[in-house]
Design a protein that fits this description.
Elements (H helix, E strand, L loop, with lengths): L4 E12 L2 E12 L3 E5 L6 H9 L6 E6 L5 E4 L11 H5 L5 H13 L5 H13 L3 H13 L14 H15 L3 E5 L7 H13 L3 E5 L3 H7 L2 E6 L2 E5 L3 H35 L9 H14 L22 E10 L2 E11 L4 E6 L5 H9 L6 E6 L5 E4 L12 H6 L4 E5 L2 E4 H7 L4 H4 L8 H13 L5 E5 L7 H12 L4 E5 L3 H7 L2 E7 L2 E5 L3 H27 L3 H5 L10 H30 L4 H31 L1
Parallel strand pairs: 3-7, 3-8, 5-6, 6-7, 12-18, 12-19, 14-17, 17-18
Antiparallel strand pairs: 1-2, 1-4, 8-9, 10-11, 10-13, 15-16, 19-20
Helix pairs in contact: 3-4, 5-6, 7-21, 9-10, 20-21
Length: 630
């Protein structure tokens, strides 16, 4: 039996003035389907999401939803009514269960009104909302939201985005619409969100630049390219293969059209007297062919080899530096000697001090003790989370030209500003638009251009991938791989880190900083192996404890009782079950990372790994209970 259709879009067209974003696009989303939209910045991804969400008009076409569809929407820039606290914002929903919880929470603040409290509790019972409230607090905890009384007016942009994400997840909608959900999430949160969505029954429509997320969660990719929509039924790896095939076919067709165009152009020039009625069809065909040939396609994979300034052998030395904010320690007597041409990634949970560390390197923040000794030749290019500031009334090309007229490539080669902007996917037409017309992602791309064109020899990039499209990320990755200088990248984009860095500093919090010799995937495998080893050591210790002579066990007078025979057998079975589940999880994780799974098989495997995690949690918790009695 086919899954029911949640959303159907037919012949949708949207334009802003003379600029057409997309024309006559059609697609549908069915129950359980997980769809991602990819395109370069400014092509209309967010606009399409807003149209479907009902917050933006469109020129023509139809959009239809399943009757009474429950839809949850995470916008790129969420807002809540002023004065709300975090818990109220999380309960800002039309769900009956959410309304019951909100009523119950309000009644708790007025305990003298027993009738209201009793009615609220009755609602909670009838709607089975008690578990729902527990799940709310679990989701908030996973997203590092703990102060439920804090006003949303006082939250940072990142905190507000996480509250909004919690809000839509708590709703448990049938169709979940997410615009860049991984922005402002640390790596642990991103991986938790992957598992959460994979284990849910929700259909998904999403815009994200996180390619591992696309690969592991999505089963259908929609690409907006040159005003058209292309559909690929598979994950991100499948999409890359099929997109390349499509581009090669288009290039072959374009080559044939160019050859034909040259012949027809020669005929048009040689036959000025023959353009009578009999030849009109050929003239019309020529005009159509000319229009097709002149449609220039912007390349998404551009090699950009910008020359870095000379860099000496001394880079920087962090000499036993310490830094703290109140009780929160960032670094404690930290020493590091940075090497020439080193490419370091920095990862860790939010609030562990990653951005503070790079600010100390560039001098924007001072250590409490110790010193950072910089080499004399260092020329920083610092892409920060707060550094993007432009005059809204300037044209794009003028904003870059105010920094320099040319970008030097070495060997006497150089690019003018317009050529440089084209490498970062700003068409000549777009270069003459005003800054205020740019999308959020295009502004980030413009900011990146202004950093790179100064020919730095030491790049520090703090969350550079937020809001950048995948095409720009490919350009940036190629640039950094060939960059003849030093690089530090702070990012939660695992794919980006794997391609760019050669080792990591892992900030665990409270001045615990680990130097790991590998990329993020290497670290993740190491971490999983370490967790498995620790679990096995606990199991082994429990077995040894269980095998001790009975008289030794009796010496522990604080123990309330021993394991029964039945519990002993249960403990042995749990140990075997946990090993089996971990082995199955490792196999499925390898399959999901291979990119060979497609369609329903990908969905099934993703759901199974979620079930395994749930079973492991339950069995491990029970194992711990029994092992304490052993």
């Amino acid at each position: 039996m086919a899954n029911s259709s949640y959303l159907q879009v037919e012949g949708l067209t949207k334009s802003f003035g003379q600029k057409v974003l997309f024309h006559d696009v059609s697609f549908g989303i069915s129950e359980g389907e997980r769809v991602a939209i990819v395109a370069r910045n400014g092509a209309g991804k967010t606009t399409l999401m807003n149209i479907i969400a009902g917050s933006e008009p469109y020129d023509s076409g139809t959009i239809s939803f399943k009757r009474d569809l429950v839809m949850g929407i995470l916008p790129q820039d969420p807002h809540f009514p002023a004065g709300m606290n975090v818990l109220q914002a999380c309960l800002h929903s039309n769900s009956d269960q959410v309304k019951a919880i909100a009523r119950y929470e309000k009644a708790l603040l007025q305990p003298e009104n027993t009738d209201e409290l009793n009615e609220a509790m009755a609602d909670m019972d009838s709607l089975k909302a008690w578990d729902y409230e527990t799940r709310i607090k679990q989701i908030l905890g996973k997203l590092n939201i703990h102060d439920l009384e804090q006003k949303v007016d006082n939250l940072s942009g990142g905190q507000l985005k996480r509250v909004a994400l919690a809000n839509v997840l708590i709703m448990e909608p049938e169709l979940l619409i997410l615009d860049e959900p991984t922005n402002h999430l640390d790596l642990a949160m991103v991986e938790w969100l992957e598992d959460y969505i994979s284990n849910s029954r929700m259909a998904l429509l999403m815009v994200t630049h996180d390619r591992y997320f696309l690969d592991r969660v999505c089963s259908h990719i929609l690409e907006i390219d040159n005003q058209q929509l292309y559909s690929y039924h598979g994950n991100y790896t499948y999409y890359l293969e099929k997109r390349q095939e499509r581009l090669e076919q288009q290039n072959a067709e374009l080559a044939r059209a160019n050859n034909l165009y040259r012949k027809e152009l020669d005929w048009m020039r040689r036959q000025p007297q023959a353009r009578g009625t009999k030849a009109q069809y050929r003239i019309d065909a020529f005009n159509e062919l000319e229009e097709k040939v002149k449609q220039k396609k912007q390349a998404g994979n551009v090699q950009l080899d910008v020359k870095a300034s000379y860099i000496g052998s001394k880079i920087f030395e962090a000499k036993y530096i310490s830094k703290a904010f109140g009780d929160t320690k960032i670094l404690d007597n930290f020493y590091y000697n940075f090497s020439r041409y080193e490419k370091m990634g920095i990862v860790g949970n939010n609030g562990t001090g990653k951005s503070t560390f790079v600010k100390m390197i560039v001098g924007d923040e001072q250590p409490d003790s110790g010193a950072i000794d910089l080499g004399e030749t260092i020329r920083f290019g610092y892409f920060s989370q707060q550094g993007m500031q432009f005059d809204e009334q300037m044209k794009v090309i003028d904003a870059v030209q105010s920094i320099a007229e040319n970008v030097y490539l070495g060997d006497g080669r150089k690019l003018n500003v317009s050529q440089f902007l084209q490498h970062f996917l700003f068409s000549p037409e777009r270069q003459h638009d005003f800054v205020y017309k740019l999308s959020g992602g295009e502004r980030r791309r413009l900011y990146l251009c202004t950093v790179l064109m100064k020919n730095p020899n030491f790049l520090i990039l703090d969350e550079p991938t937020n809001d950048l499209d995948i095409m720009t990320l490919n350009v940036l990755e190629d640039y950094l791989q060939n960059f003849k200088g030093c690089v530090i990248v702070v990012s939660h984009d695992r794919y980006f880190m794997d391609k760019v860095v050669d080792h990591l500093l892992v900030f665990h919090g409270q001045a615990n900083v680990q130097d790991f010799p590998g990329n993020y995937t290497d670290y993740r495998l190491y971490r999983e192996m370490k967790q498995q080893q620790e679990r096995k050591e606990k199991e082994q210790a429990a077995k040894q404890q269980a095998n001790k002579p009975a008289e030794n066990k009796n010496q522990n007078s604080t123990r309330a009782r021993k394991l029964t025979y039945k519990e002993q057998k249960e403990l042995e079975q749990l140990t075997a079950d946990i090993e089996t589940l971990e082995a199955e999880k490792a196999t499925i994780t390898e399959e999901l990372s291979s990119g060979t799974l497609q369609g329903q098989e990908l969905v099934d495997k993703s759901q199974r790994i979620g079930d395994i995690d749930k079973e492991l949690d339950e069995k491990t918790e029970r194992w711990m209970e029994l092992s304490e009695l052993a």
